[in-house]
Amino acid sequence: MTGQAFSFSPSPIPAAIAVVVHEGKALLVRRANPPDAGLWGFPGGKIDFGETVRDAATRELLEETGIRAEAQEIITTLDILVRADDGGVRQHFILIAVRCRWLSGSPKAGDDALEAGWIPVADLHPDRLPMSADVDVIARRVEALARED
Question: Mind listing the domains of the chain with CATH numbers?
Fold first, then answer.
């Protein structure tokens, strides 16, 4: 998630994630920074003050992957609780997943991503690919929605 300092926050941090599924493949990035460093997930990051959720999703998508997309509907929200060593909550992220329709571009890692690429939705299994919470579930949901369109 772009521009995110990993420190204590006394209130939840809203963030948008861009869920792009195109031709049976999900656009994912491998994160460079905590809280999900090394894991594959959807591009995304903090929502800036005055920025809409949809605008944040497409901005973060472009910054992290170079992909241009049209934000569509909100798919789901996720609570991500980052625990301190003593078990208390160090940070609380509220991730808002926005379905986005691919418009142009080829993925290239930028910003805080180590890698970016299209991964077949059928290959998304936590035991085969280290990924952030619910990536496989959300990608399959968006793929099903695309079949209905």
Answer: 13-140 (3.90.79.10)
